[in-house]
């Protein structure tokens, strides 16, 4: 993961790996393992959406900027060195925020390289999709792993950002994820301020497009382009 360099991906600063005393004198194996990352003082996007520890709510402007940052990082992974690196666990809990609320995608434990964004290209990988179920597309649950599964997951994050509700199988967000057909809109989070109605509609529509079948679902590049247009229209010159 140290090869990746993107402002919205969590940077690996260092690591500690197990070591063995090869002299045979002590024959001790040090089993401690750790990865060192920058401190993300604002916690995760999930934490901030639910105002964990009485943290201040994120404004709709900040939330919208965060969405663009997240899809920018996903697009980068999917087009890195002409391969698709699939994160496989995109969710608000894995979007971390620094002191300026700049988003950084973390938790790369499930990332796999694919072939042109079609599949992971790793034998046996399709039999073990991993990930977090409510954020996973139907085909991913069945073992058909591709970059399109990250796009589906991003659609869930859009709904969470709009509503301030973390997706689960027994709430409004989860219900739309499971059955998006016929859903017209979701109640937006009033803690974010006065959302522009047309912005909410555009984001909601983009989310539902991300829930389409694998064949109809857009690529991360297409989603990034559409979201960039939305952000540029509504937030041009707006500081967060």
TrEMBL record:
<keyword id="KW-0723">Serine/threonine-protein kinase</keyword>
<dbReference type="InterPro" id="IPR008271">
    <property type="entry name" value="Ser/Thr_kinase_AS"/>
</dbReference>
<protein>
    <recommendedName>
        <fullName>non-specific serine/threonine protein kinase</fullName>
        <ecNumber>2.7.11.1</ecNumber>
    </recommendedName>
</protein>
<dbReference type="GO" id="GO:0005524">
    <property type="term" value="F:ATP binding"/>
</dbReference>
<dbReference type="InterPro" id="IPR051348">
    <property type="entry name" value="U-box_ubiquitin_ligases"/>
</dbReference>
<dbReference type="Pfam" id="PF00069">
    <property type="entry name" value="Pkinase"/>
</dbReference>
<keyword id="KW-0547">Nucleotide-binding</keyword>
<feature type="domain" description="Protein kinase">
    <location>
        <begin position="1"/>
        <end position="235"/>
    </location>
</feature>
<keyword id="KW-0067">ATP-binding</keyword>
<dbReference type="GO" id="GO:0004674">
    <property type="term" value="F:protein serine/threonine kinase activity"/>
</dbReference>
<dbReference type="InterPro" id="IPR000719">
    <property type="entry name" value="Prot_kinase_dom"/>
</dbReference>
<keyword id="KW-0418">Kinase</keyword>
<comment type="similarity">
    <text>Belongs to the protein kinase superfamily. TKL Ser/Thr protein kinase family. Pelle subfamily.</text>
</comment>
<keyword id="KW-0808">Transferase</keyword>
<dbReference type="InterPro" id="IPR011009">
    <property type="entry name" value="Kinase-like_dom_sf"/>
</dbReference>
<keyword id="KW-0833">Ubl conjugation pathway</keyword>
């Amino acid at each position: 993961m140290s090869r990746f360099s993107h402002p919205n991906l969590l940077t690996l600063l260092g690591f500690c790996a197990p070591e063995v005393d090869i002299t045979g004198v002590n024959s001790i194996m040090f089993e401690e393992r750790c990865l060192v990352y920058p401190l993300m003082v604002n916690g995760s996007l999930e934490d901030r959406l639910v105002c964990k520890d009485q943290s201040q709510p994120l404004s709709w402007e900040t939330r919208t900027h965060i969405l663009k940052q997240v899809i920018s990082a996903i697009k980068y992974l999917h087009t890195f060195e002409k391969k698709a690196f699939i994160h496989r666990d995109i969710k608000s809990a894995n979007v971390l925020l620094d002191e300026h609320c700049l988003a950084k995608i973390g938790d790369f434990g499930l990332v796999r390289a694919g072939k042109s964004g079609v599949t992971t290209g790793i034998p046996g990988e399709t039999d073990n999709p991993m990930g977090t179920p409510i954020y996973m597309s139907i085909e991913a649950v069945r073992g058909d792993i591709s970059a399109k599964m990250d796009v589906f997951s991003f659609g869930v994050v859009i709904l969470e950002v709009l509503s301030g509700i973390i997706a689960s199988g027994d709430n409004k967000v989860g219900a739309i994820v499971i059955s998006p057909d016929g859903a017209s809109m979701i109640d937006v989070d009033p803690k974010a301020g006065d959302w522009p109605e047309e912005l909410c509609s555009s984001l909601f529509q983009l989310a539902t497009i991300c829930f389409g079948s694998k064949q109809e679902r857009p690529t991360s590049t297409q989603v990034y382009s559409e979201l960039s247009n939305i952000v540029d229209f509504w937030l041009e010159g707006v500081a967060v």
